[in-house]
Write a structure and sequence with these properties.
The structure holds two protein chains of two kinds.
Chain A (H helix, E strand, L loop, with lengths): L2 E5 L3 E2 L5 E8 L8 E8 L6 E6 L5 E3 L7 E6 L4 E6 L8 E9 L9 E5 L3 E5 L2
Parallel strand pairs in A: 2-11
Antiparallel strand pairs in A: 1-3, 3-8, 4-5, 4-9, 5-6, 7-8, 9-10, 9-11
Chain B lengths: L3 E4 L2 E4 L4 E8 L7 E6 L6 E5 L3 E2 L7 E6 L2 E7 L7 E7 L6 E2 L3 E5 L1
Parallel strand pairs in B: 2-11
Antiparallel strand pairs in B: 1-3, 3-8, 4-5, 4-9, 5-6, 7-8, 9-10, 9-11
Classes of the chains: A mainly beta, B mainly beta.
């Protein structure tokens, strides 16, 4: 059964870069059936899509975060990563990585059929 | 962006009750809608895709319907383990967007 595990610092200083990695187990990240995505959830609030990546390296970002976000993939390590630059307290959230099913309808637009457990990242000095 | 308006934001119902949540899209999204269940302290779990297709292993008391801009999620007999927040998500276009969530509690 697929497993996704987020890893990275739980505390980041304002103006620094948030970096997280999602390691995929028991499935290959190199599949054209799936996208690999990041979604975040501020404490006590709803879900916000950050972006997706395809195994080829094609990326799709939320315009609200696009200027600060980079998602990359390393197929040799079967993991993908998130970098969010110039963070503020508003970026404090649980960050989830997830597998997105490629419906083939809209480029870069899946639904998420499997999620990691989430990683709480707090932005504070 | 396609805005997803979910209602109610919270509800309280008795065990065995029929529970209905609605999700309205600001644009026609055909049937490209999914529903997730998020229990406290846990990651969301996919319940339904393509507006009405139940995921394998999800109890049949959960169901979804709708197309275009108006969608409904139903629990036909609320169970104590269904206490959670439920979210809709459209995947018709980018950016992907979620509804604000509906918190379901037991009365």
């Amino acid at each position: 059964q697929l497993q996704l595990q987020e890893s990275g610092p739980g505390l980041v200083k304002p103006s620094d870069t948030l970096s997280l990695t999602c390691t995929v187990s028991r499935d290959s990240i190199s599949s054209d059936r799936f996208y690999w995505g990041w979604i975040r959830q501020p404490p006590g609030k709803g879900l916000e899509w950050i972006g997706n990546i395809f195994y080829t390296g094609n990326t799709y970002y939320n315009p609200s975060l696009k200027s600060r976000v980079t998602i990359s993939v390393d197929t040799s390590k079967n993991h993908f990563s998130l970098k969010l630059r110039s963070v503020t307290a508003a970026d404090t959230a649980i960050y989830y990585c997830a597998r997105g099913f490629n419906t083939g309808w809209s480029l870069g637009a899946p639904y998420f059929d499997s999620w990691g457990q989430g990683s709480l990242v707090t932005v504070s000095s | 962006d396609t805005q997803m308006t979910q209602s109610p934001s919270s509800l309280s119902a008795s065990v065995g009750d029929r529970v209905t949540i609605t999700c309205q899209a600001s644009h026609d999204i055909s049937h490209y809608l999914s529903w997730y269940q998020q229990k406290p302290g846990k990651a969301p779990k996919l319940l339904i895709s393509t507006a009405s297709s139940l995921e394998t292993g999800v109890p049949s008391r959960f169901s979804g319907s709708g197309a275009g801009t108006d969608f409904t999620f139903t629990i036909s007999g609320l169970q104590p383990e269904d206490i959670a927040t439920y979210y809709c998500q459209q995947y018709d276009n980018l950016p992907l967007t979620f509804g604000g969530g509906t918190k379901v509690e037991i009365k």
